[in-house]
Amino acid sequence: MFETLKNAFKVKEIRKKIFIMLALLLVYRIGCYIPVPGLRSSVFSEYVEDGGNNFLALMSAVTGGALANGTLFALGIGPYINASIIMQLLAVGIPALERLSKQGEEGKKKIATYTRILTLVLAIVQAIGVIINFASTRNAINFTYFWDQEWLTYIYMAVVYTGGAMITMWLGERITEYGVGNGISMIIFIGIISTAGNQLIIAPIQNTVESGFSASTLVSTIVFIVIAIVIFALIVLVDLAERRIPVQYAKQVKGRKMYGGQATVIPIKISGSGVMPLIFAFAIISLPDLFMGLFWDGYSSSWYAQNISGGTGPWAWVYILVLCLLIFAFSFFYAQIQFNPEDISKSIQQNGGFIPGIRPGKPTADYLKKISNRITLFGAIFLSLVAFVPSFAFSFAGAGYVNVFSTTGILIIVSVALEFDKQLQSQLMMKNYKGFLK
After folding, report:
1. What percent of the chain shows pLDDT beyond 90?
2. What pLDDT, in 10s, does the model give residues 165-181?
3. DSSP of 135-200, one letter per residue?
């Protein structure tokens, strides 16, 4: 990857795209530190970081701590991600959207427009919900800034947070258009990296200045780095693993020309569904704690963290079991959405292809479905291990390093970094082809 970056900076056009991407990401990070007048950020920080809610902690890590601080970009890219997921699910269940998704660029533009509209709606709903709940149950808003008018305060902050979410979406789309890679993924990536960097670099420096140098801290940091390198290497190994199903195309004579006769493969990745099963699983399993913490006066979310989600309480095994079942369920659900054996079998048959040893038609679809289910099973087991193993492994470096990288954050970092490397390689290849043609 470092060699790819080195070669990319030698090309003027790609170097310009990288600088544009970095500038837009800098604008996003500045927005993550802009405070909202009238908001007590300490209340947000206490609930998100110390409340034991895994999903809110994940969303805070994705936004680079903006959610925990209640800043302008507190909602981050969350509304857009939710809107994209909803549109994907609707495209499967609604025939009109499914046809629209298969109409090429025009269809993609219309779906993108619908996604933006849905993002705006979700951002408004989330902003109002967060503001009202925190204001009523946790006294997070100072109404004296707005002449003690609650309705004016709610409208103002809803507009501010909705605007922040829409600006974040706009920055992501501009990175995709003028930069390198997917802008939304890069915003999530930089948020997680900044959160980890704060705990790995800034926090130890502050502790050293306040308490002096400690050899144990240095040893713990070295142990953490070694464990992190091993975990990242294993995840990269699994992320790149795939099952390649050979496909042979028969020769066809059309007029005076002969077509086909070539061999290709159908690659099926072990982690083809990415981190979405983990995000969905953490979101659903955190709903009880989220709703009780927001609507139940006097409820302490630390009880849920200590007895259920913390991994040490008497009911921790229930949490682990339910989380694994949710990961398995969403892994198979996403596999069915992304990989349709019937469509692939029909496409192979229409182009005169076949899988060696398998008859075309329904036998091919059944064979692909069986292979997909097996690989999805191993992918679900892998995600279940990733959900628990990193935190356990990082605990050997000390309690302060357990939450530096969330389990989902590790997968996001790996997948985005690999995708960024592929994008750079493809742009370098296109540049080389252009030079050859000239």
Report:
1. 3
2. 899 999 988 988 888 87
3. HHHH--B-GGGGTT-HHHHHHHHHHHHHHHHHHHHHHHHHHHHHSSS-HHHHHHHHHHHHHHHIII
Name 42's Cβ contacts closer than 8 Å, sequence gap at least 6: none
Residue whose pair of structure tokens reads 């302008």 in the numeric block? 72
Tokens of 381: 């087991």
Q: What is the mean pLDDT of the chain?
A: 75
Q: Which residues contact 313 (CB under 8 A, 6 or more apart)?
A: 306, 307
Token code pair at residue 324: 């694994």
Neighbours of 329 (CB within 10 A): 15
pLDDT band at 389 (very low <50, low <70, confident <90, very high): confident
| Residue 295 CB-density burial (10 A; 0-12 exposed, 13-18 middle, 19+ buried) | exposed
Nearest partner of 386 among 271, 306, 240, judged by Cα: 271
CA angle at residue 159 from 65 to 89, to 5 degrees? Answer: 70
Higher pLDDT, 389 or 294: 389
Look at residue 437 and tell me whether its pLDDT is greater than 50: no
Task: Please provide the distance, in angstroms rounded to a whole number, between the alpha carbons at the two ends of the chain.
Answer: 28
Distance from C-alpha of 61 to C-alpha of 253, rounded to nearest angstrom? 58
Residues 49 and 68 sit within 8 Å (Cβ to Cβ): yes
* Single pTM value for the model: 0.75
Say if CB 343 and CB 337 are below 8 A apart. Answer: no
Q: What is the DSSP string of 73-112?
A: TSSTTHHHHHHHHHHHHHHHH-HHHHHHHTSHHHHHHHHH
Strands 242-249 and 353-354 turn out to be: antiparallel
- Cβ atoms of 249 and 261 within 8 Å: the answer is yes
Distance CA(395)–CA(406), nearest Å, equals 13
Q: Say how far apart CA 42 and CA 54 lie, in whole Å.
A: 19
Return the higher-pLDDT residue of 137 and 408.
408
H/E element holding 298? none
